[in-house]
Amino acid sequence: MNLPTATSVTRYFDNPAAHITLDETARHRRRMRMVSDRLDNGAAIVFLLDLPQARLLRHGDGLVLDDGRIIEVCAAPEQLMEVRGKDTRHLLSLAWQIGNRHLAAQITDTAIRIRRDHVIREMLIGLGASVEDIDAPFDPEGGAYGGAHEAHHHHAGQVHDHIHFDEHEHEHEHGHRHD
Questions:
Q1: 78-143+153-178 maps to which CATH number?
Q2: What sign results for the dihedral spanned by CA atoms 92, 90, 179, 161?
Q3: Quick one: CA dihedral 36, 143, 93, 128, positive or negative?
Q4: CB-based contacts of 156: which residues, under 8 Å, 6+ apart?
C-alpha cells in the first residue's frame, strides 16, 4: 500500500483534510510515518512525512500531501513554566540566563516560556523572576544557524562544559552545573 506523502510545508491553506496534534519534540521531524487525529467519521489519515531536511513544524503549518490534501499541524499543550521579570531589563537578564543554559525558549512580549525544571525554577526565582506553571503549546525560537531547533536538555546533576574560541583565537571555558 502506497501511503500519501507530504514533501512540503505551507502556511497558506483553507479547509485542511485533517489535523495532527504533536508536542514540540514530535514536531521536529524530517521523515516518518504519521497518523492524523481522528476525523469526524472515526477514521484517520495515515501518511509519510518526507521533507528535504529536518525542521520544527510550527503550530498552524500545513503538510501538503501529494494528492493535494493538507494536514494541519497543531501544537499539543505541554507542561511549561512562564517566566516574567520585574521590567523589560530584568526579563532580558533572565533571558540571558536561560540562553546561557541552552534551554529551548519561547519568547512572548512579556514572558519567556520554557519546559518545567525544578532546578531552573529555583535559579530564576533566586534571580527575582516570577515563575508560573502553565499548560500550553510550546513553540520555541529556532536556532541561530539555519532556524532548526538546536537546544539540548540537561538532567539533574549533569555537568556541561563548553570551550568557545573568539575572534582573537583564544579559548574560553564555560562550565554549567545543574543540580
A1: 3.30.70.790
A2: positive
A3: positive
A4: 119, 178, 179
The label of the residue with cell 502556511 reads 11
For the record, the C-alpha cell of 128 comes out as 527575582
Query: Coil, strand or helix: which one is 91?
Result: helix
Query: In DSSP terms, which residues pair with 81 in a beta bridge?
Result: 114, 133
Q: What is the pLDDT of residues 98-148, one digit of tens each?
A: 999 999 999 999 999 999 999 999 999 999 999 999 999 999 987 665 444
| CATH class in words for 5-75 | mainly beta
pTM attached to this predicted model: 0.71
Q: Where are the domains of the chain?
A: 5-75, 78-143+153-178
